[in-house]
């Protein structure tokens, strides 16, 4: 157990106001890599459930053509920044590419700020619910401060991100106002869930779909117009998370290397790895 908490002890010696990148990196890539990634996936769906965002995406049609690649690209660029830092050449390139992808759209600042929140709020809450331990205060603050700086570099108005608690309140209030069932929301949701379900074998796809829906809260399910998952799906997912938390806490050795390796992620999208090109973006290394 002492070895299991070694990273946490390191984190508790650090200053989240200054070392938030390293703290968040350890949290996301060593302590809770699976839950952080799942939270990011949930956040991805929440972005499209916001009616203005869904309307914009449905109008442009870009995400409808290759949703899996767009989702993977968004996640990779985010992790490139987290892995390297904001001022590393690869971190700067990832920021620039993200800005380029948004430059053609007129995005309302509230929508932009909410989208920024989906990168970490859902992960934070998923770890709170299913993690093998609770997030420490330095970890929570580091997640908040990293994403605030990330947003600032993307041109998001982050002045309203005064404290984590106040931002979480704003985030929930935004959802109450803007996560609504509309034809574009449903259209973009179907494109994305369809792209995601291409990976598992066809007989398992209904099970995987229900498992994904267990990660959705009532507001998100209402917006994308899907029913509450069956009792067996909820029980199955809860059991999987419980067993995973127990295994990490009591059985598995602590992770020694980061879960993200630049150039070698998302093999189903980039089977040969990827290159981070300043002009072309993510390019298959093969």
UniProtKB/TrEMBL annotation:
GO terms for molecular function: oxidoreductase activity. Residues 39-250 form the ER-bound oxygenase mpaB/mpaB'/Rubber oxygenase catalytic domain. It comes from the Bacteria. PANTHER family: ER-BOUND OXYGENASE MPAB_MPAB'_RUBBER OXYGENASE CATALYTIC DOMAIN-CONTAINING PROTEIN (PTHR36124:SF1), PTHR36124. This is ER-bound oxygenase mpaB/mpaB'/Rubber oxygenase catalytic domain-containing protein. The lineage of its organism: Bacteria, Bacillati, Actinomycetota, Actinomycetes, Kitasatosporales.
């Amino acid at each position: 157990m002492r070895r299991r908490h070694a990273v946490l002890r390191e984190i508790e010696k650090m200053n989240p106001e200054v070392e938030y990148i390293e703290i968040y990196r350890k949290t996301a890539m060593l302590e809770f890599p699976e839950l952080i990634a799942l939270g990011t996936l949930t956040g991805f769906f929440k972005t499209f459930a916001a009616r203005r965002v869904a309307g914009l995406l449905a109008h442009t049609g870009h995400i409808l053509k290759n949703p899996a690649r767009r989702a993977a690209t968004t996640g990779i660029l985010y992790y490139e920044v987290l892995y390297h830092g904001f001022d590393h050449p690869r971190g700067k390139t990832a920021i620039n590419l993200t800005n380029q992808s948004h430059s053609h759209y007129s995005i309302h600042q509230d929508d932009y700020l909410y989208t920024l929140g989906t990168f970490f709020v859902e992960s934070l809450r998923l770890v709170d619910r299913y993690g093998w331990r609770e997030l420490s205060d330095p970890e929570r603050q580091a997640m908040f401060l990293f994403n605030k700086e990330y947003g600032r570099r993307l041109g998001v108005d982050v002045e309203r991100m005064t404290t984590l608690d106040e931002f979480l309140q704003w985030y929930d209030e935004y959802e109450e106002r803007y996560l609504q069932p509309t034809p574009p929301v449903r259209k973009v949701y179907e494109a994305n869930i369809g792209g995601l379900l291409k990976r598992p074998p066809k007989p398992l796809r209904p099970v995987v779909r229900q498992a994904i829906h267990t990660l959705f809260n009532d507001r998100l399910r209402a917006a994308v117009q899907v029913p509450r998952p069956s009792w067996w799906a909820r029980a199955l997912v809860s059991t999987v998370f419980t067993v995973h938390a127990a295994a990490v806490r009591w059985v598995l050795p602590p992770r020694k290397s980061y879960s993200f390796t630049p150039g070698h992620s998302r093999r189903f999208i980039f089977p040969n790895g990827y290159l981070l090109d300043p002009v072309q973006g993510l390019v298959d290394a093969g």
